[in-house]
Structure prediction request, 391 residues.
Amino acid sequence: MLNQIISITAMNLRSLQSRLGLSLVIVIGIAGVVGVFTALLAMSQGFEATLKATGRDDRALVLRDGSSAELNSGIDQASVQAIKDTPGARPGKSGTPLASAELIVITEFASIARGGSFNVTLRGIEPAGLEMRPELKIIDGRLFKSGLQEVIVGKSALTSFEGVSMGSKLRFRGADWTVVGVFESGDVHESELLTDFATAQTAFGRLGASSVLVQLDRAEDINAFTATLKADPRLNVEVQAEKAYFSGQTEQFSNTIGALALVVSVIMGLGALFAALNTMFAAVAARTRQIATLRAIGFGGVPVAASVLIEAMVLALLGGALGATIAYLLFNNFSVSTLGQGFTQVVFNFRVSPGLVGTGLLISLLIGFVGGLLPAIRAARLPVTTALRAG
Prediction:
């Protein structure tokens, strides 16, 4: 039986050139399904990878209780100092605890790629915040100076927003701020502008902080640190591991894109499925006499059905590979920005991963299998005598 399946399948595949038009219907249809599916989920994976690369488990982010993001959190100056005085923070180079009060301010820039204006995060940060972020490295220029209206910009912000370049003047609240450096961090902070915390407080008339970032000795210490803060009657805060905070922001976006990818893929997949059905039924009809002859000389119905099914799946796999290749060439590392949980733009790259490509190929095989199943059964059940008389 295996030899029969191989022989008939090889014969069918060699004859594809004579049915090129019909075969391309399957290939192109499934290429569209896999290409769209891959592109949509590549966007989701890229956004998720950017946020999950942000932060560490041994850094605690302290927000006002009930706040879902740094932007809508507010901690007064007395509470900030109480948090810094709480035991548990690792000492820095100066011997003082590594705890950074940070201020989030929304600024507005035009997008280089799409036009229009977008919200961009300006983060006021203390020296301890820089010390506890070794991943943040200046790649051009220098660090901002305390007391001066200077900013450093993330590498992604530099290439995505108009008017942001080394030495440029940025207009915030009626004052000019000078870009003095560019940094890279490999995470969501590359979409931000950083400045001195005290300078930002003065310029924007803020008395407190949006959050406090604390460096712990170990990731396991966060529960004890949280319990200590909760027990302090002066404080009304909640604590998360920094990495967990940023990872949690991906859920809504990923669910939305996942649902969209599912709906679009199902709709397009149904179209490709019907195209495969029609194509394979037409292929069986065109080879009626050939199939009957094979049956008459001793080939079984199962090998005939298997050959039709394999042909449909091969065409579907070719379509899936074509769609995945196009998605990879067009979208892998393609840079875009979207609105994050803090209502500011997050710049990230599409990520066409091997796992995503594999999923797309499995979908193409599934469509090919379902689309070829009924034509394969029809071919196996074709009456030999009737088929031989067919002109």
Summary: The mean pLDDT is 85. The longest helix spans residues 250-286.
